[in-house]
């Protein structure tokens, strides 16, 4: 067990991450280390990391054996930055005179992206790891443990270990024509696959941005200079401040991304009359073995207001780029039913929860059953309102593409 990414063997950690069915750049050692080193996710901000590893004592050669499993959890005195909301659970504890905090979350801070959370060589090691973590949380007297935005392998381990599952909805775009199942040839082919009113709306929104004299510059990886990152951060910070909050991530965090993980980022800069006025940032999980290349919409901000600029910067420009580059999937982040009008389709995401108090665990389990039924009905309603002219890929086809 380790208390900081600096104490964790990066090569061992990343080797395990590469073995998972759904790796993301957000669980890379450099990403987690940057969260700590930049002051973004630290005990001072309510994120105290605890790293767990499982491994044999030594190999046949007498040297330390490779890890069998690993994960990171965070001890938290609040529920900010998680995107799976349990404020009502905390309130119920408080009204009964019981402490809900500190709690533990197995998650990536401020990052509602589904993916592997328990890094393990096989299902048995994954379940062993999770049971060890739950046991640790129980022995530490914590109220609860929450594994957020987990993948299917993690959820199977959670079910075997007796954790409760909670479902939410995100919106993801697939680079897959609804009729042929093949990637879109270009953005016009994508538009042609949509209902006429959706296609017309997108063209109208894009025209407003173009008529405002806005053009885009796209920067990939090392093309994003320190000055470009500075401009992006000014936009990102402005968005948070306009909503009355300080940004979760510091400028230093993004400097770590520039220096250590530049290949995972693409920046879209909106310019008018030669001046940058807005930007959006997406992340990439490059293709490895059978894993498709995936893009993740992450952050955006603007220093000037232009009608429909948000849609252009956060959806249309990234989708055009994804089609051009042959990206398999674009994930739009948490919430946002409006994303369906841009052909991001509803996808169920799932978290797993353990509560130490038997009475509250029973009450939450009943609540989750009712909530789950509501989420299922919501998904059915959304899928009936597909923006595509012809049937979009069935759920099992989407799962196959995502796998």
From TrEMBL:
GO molecular function terms attached to this record: transferase activity
Presence of the UniProt keyword Transferase in the record: yes
Pfam families linked: FemAB_like
InterPro entries: Acyl_CoA_acyltransferase (IPR016181), FemAB-like (IPR007434)
This protein's UniProt keywords: Transferase
Keyword check for Ubl conjugation: no
Signal peptide per UniProt: none
Name of this protein: N-acetyltransferase
UniProt organism field: Diaphorobacter ruginosibacter
Lineage of origin: Bacteria, Pseudomonadati, Pseudomonadota, Betaproteobacteria, Burkholderiales
């Amino acid at each position: 067990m380790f208390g900081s990414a600096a104490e964790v063997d990066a090569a061992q950690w990343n080797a395990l991450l590469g073995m998972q069915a759904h790796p993301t750049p957000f669980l890379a050692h450099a990403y987690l280390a940057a969260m700590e080193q930049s002051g973004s996710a630290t005990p001072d901000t309510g994120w105290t990391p605890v790293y767990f590893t499982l491994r044999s004592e030594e190999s046949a050669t007498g040297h330390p054996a490779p890890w069998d499993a690993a994960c990171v959890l965070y001890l938290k005195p609040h529920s900010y930055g998680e995107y799976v909301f349990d404020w009502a659970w905390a309130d119920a504890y408080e009204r009964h005179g019981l402490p809900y905090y500190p709690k533990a979350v197995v998650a990536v801070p401020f990052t509602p992206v589904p993916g592997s959370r328990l890094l393990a060589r096989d299902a048995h090691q994954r379940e062993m790891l999770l049971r060890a973590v739950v046991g640790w949380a129980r022995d530490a007297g914590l109220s609860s443990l929450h594994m957020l935005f987990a993948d299917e392998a993690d959820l199977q381990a959670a079910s075997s270990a007796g954790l409760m599952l909670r479902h939410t909805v995100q919106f993801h775009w697939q680079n897959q024509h609804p009729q042929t199942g093949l990637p879109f040839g270009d953005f016009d082919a994508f538009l042609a696959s949509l209902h006429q009113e959706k296609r017309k709306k997108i063209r109208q929104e894009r025209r407003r941005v173009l008529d405002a004299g806005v053009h885009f510059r796209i920067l990939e990886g090392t093309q994003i200079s320190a000055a470009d990152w500075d401009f992006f951060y000014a936009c990102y910070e402005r968005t948070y401040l306009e909503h009355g909050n300080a940004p979760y991530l510091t400028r230093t965090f993004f400097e770590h991304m520039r220096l250590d993980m530049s290949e995972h980022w693409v920046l879209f800069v909106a310019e008018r009359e030669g001046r940058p006025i807005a930007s959006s940032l997406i992340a990439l999980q490059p293709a490895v073995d059978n894993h498709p290349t995936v893009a993740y919409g992450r952050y955006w901000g603007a220093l000037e207001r232009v009608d429909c600029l948000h849609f252009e910067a956060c959806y249309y420009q990234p989708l055009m780029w994804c089609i051009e580059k042959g990206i398999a999937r674009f994930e739009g982040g948490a919430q946002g039913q409006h994303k369906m009008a841009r052909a991001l389709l509803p996808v169920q995401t799932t978290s797993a929860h353990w509560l130490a108090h038997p009475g509250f665990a029973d009450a939450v389990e009943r609540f989750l059953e009712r909530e789950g039924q509501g989420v299922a009905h919501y998904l059915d309603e959304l899928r009936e309102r597909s923006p595509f002219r012809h049937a979009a890929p069935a759920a099992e086809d989407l799962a196959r593409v995502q796998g």
